[in-house]
Amino acid sequence: MSFDPVRFIQVFEHDFAQAKQLLIKHQVLSANEAGNISLRIPGEQRLVIASLSGADSGVSAIVDFDLQHSQGSLTDNLKEVAVLHVAIYRERPQVNAVIHTHSPYLTAFAIAGRPLRAHASQLLGVLDEDQEIPLTAWGPRYAPQPVVDALREHPRAPAALLANHGPFAWSERDVLAATRLLINLEEAAYLTFLAAQLGTPQPFPQGAAQRSRLGWSAT
Predict the structure, then answer these.
(1) Which of 16, 171, 182, 190 gives 105 a disulfide partner, CB atoms 3.0 to 4.6 angstroms apart?
(2) Domain named Class II aldolase/adducin N-terminal: which ranges (predicted)?
């Protein structure tokens, strides 16, 4: 069956609208709702992307990975950030959706120069107890290399904190899965921040992630 760009965009924009409502409901967006979401077009070197903020929120554009050809409403800002989305797709061929926001607590960790370590139980579903959501090196706005370096250093990481900027998260499934992951990461960042006010956030014991995945009966 040939690719139907109209139908693909319709599905993407429907999921995008649901994703934005989830982000608003869980207070994961910044005050100006800055951010963007993309979805890889199956079997092609192209993606569809839309902004979470502004008058063009939810208005999508299809972009080639070489960023030389596009269909739809591709603003300068979307073209700029698409460079980083493409870098993630190239580095993680299995990834299908990428989300970027300025979520307050994850962005605070990025500005403070701190990775998000696995202290909160929400992270045991996506990380082992000795892993972290990595912090990238600083780079110019949306420079891809710092994120690529972090992905290579942390091959199992489902997200990265762009230094002094904010989070990028991705999913092998779809837009809504990437969005739910980001919501869980933001909650983990919030709880870790609160715990730091009471003392030092405590690590999980060795093997906690595996035991958590097996369930309460694991010994």
Answers:
(1) 190
(2) 14-193
Q: Write out the chain in H/E/C secondary structure.
A: CCCCHHHHHHHHHHHHHHHHHHHHHCCCCCCCCCEEEEEECCCCCEEEEEECCCCCCCCCEEEECCCCCEEECCCHHHHHHHHHHHHHHHHCCCCCEEEEECCHHHHHHHHHCCCEECCCHHHHHCCCCCCEECECCCCCCCCHHHHHHHHHHCCCCCEEEECCCEEEEEECCCHHHHHHHHHHHHHHHHHHHHHHHHCCCCCCCCCHHHHHHHCCCCC
Divide the 219 residues of the chain into consecutive groups of 10 and give the mean pLDDT of each group: 81 97 97 96 95 93 92 86 96 97 98 94 82 94 94 96 97 97 96 94 80 61
